[in-house]
Amino acid sequence: MDATIVEIKIGSHLPITSLSLCESRYDWRVPSADLQKLLNSGPNVIIADGLNAAYIAWNSPRTSFCGRKLFNYLRGINGIKVLALLSPTHINWNSWDTVLDLAILKRIPFHSQIIVLNSLNSDHLPGILTLGTGSFPINSPEHFFTIWENFRHILSFKPLPLQNFLR
Fold first, then answer.
1. Relative to the CA of 56, which of 131, 146, 149, 150 has its CA 20 to 30 Å away?
2. In what residue span(s) does the Endonuclease/exonuclease/phosphatase domain sit (predicted)?
3. C-beta of residue 25 within 8 angstroms of C-beta of residue 51
C-alpha cells in the first residue's frame, strides 16, 4: 500500500488529515490494523484514492471481496461517511466498468462532493473531492505561495510530524 499524508488547516477548525492511498493489488484484503491507524491519524480524516474495493452501494455493478470487507469494517465506525463517484473510475474494455476510487471521511465538518474527470486518456479516471468550507476561495496564485528557504530550514531542523506513523 502506498500512502501520501497531508494535513490541512482551515480557519479555526481542527486540522484535517488527508491521506491518498493506492493499493495496486486486486487481491488486497483491507489490512484492518493499518486502516485503523490511518483513521486514527487525526480528529478529522479523509482517506481517498484507488482502494480497489468495489461495492454495489458505492455505485459499482458488482461487489468484490475487498469491497464487502471494507464496507463491513467501516459500517461499525461512528462518524464515517463514504463518498463514491457516480460514474466508473476504471474502464475495462473486456469486462465491467467499475468505481474503484472512494473517499472515506471521518468527522469532516464540511459539505463534500466527489466527481470523475474524463480528461485523461487512461483506463483509470481521476476524481476530485471538493470540500465546501464557506471560506473565501483562493482565486489568484499570489494568495498562495511557498517561501522555499523557510521550507528547507524547517525540514532540516524539525522532524516530519508523521514519520513514525505506520510503525
1. 131
2. 32-126
3. no
Q: Where does 85-165 show beta strands of DSSP type E? A: 101-106, 111-116, 127-132
Q: How confident is the model at residue 120 (pLDDT cuts 50, 70, 90)?
A: low
DSSP 140-161: SGGGS---HHHHHHHHHHS--T
Total domains in the chain come to 1
What's the pTM value of the predicted model, to 2 decimals?
0.70
Q: Is residue 150 part of a domain?
A: no
Cell representation of residue 131: 470540500
For residue 89, give the DSSP letter.
S
Helix (H, G, I), strand (E, B) or coil at 44: strand
Asked if residue 48 lies in contact with residue 101, where contact means CB atoms within 8 angstroms, the answer is yes
Average pLDDT over residues 68-82: 88
Q: pLDDT of 121-148, one tens digit each?
A: 666 677 788 888 776 555 545 555 677 7
CATH number at residue 96: 3.60.10.10
- Tell whether 151 is covered by a domain: no
DSSP secondary structure letter of residue 56: G
pLDDT in tens, 37-58: 888 888 999 998 777 788 888 8
> pLDDT above 90 covers what percent of the chain?
6
Q: Quick one: DSSP state of residue 58?
A: G
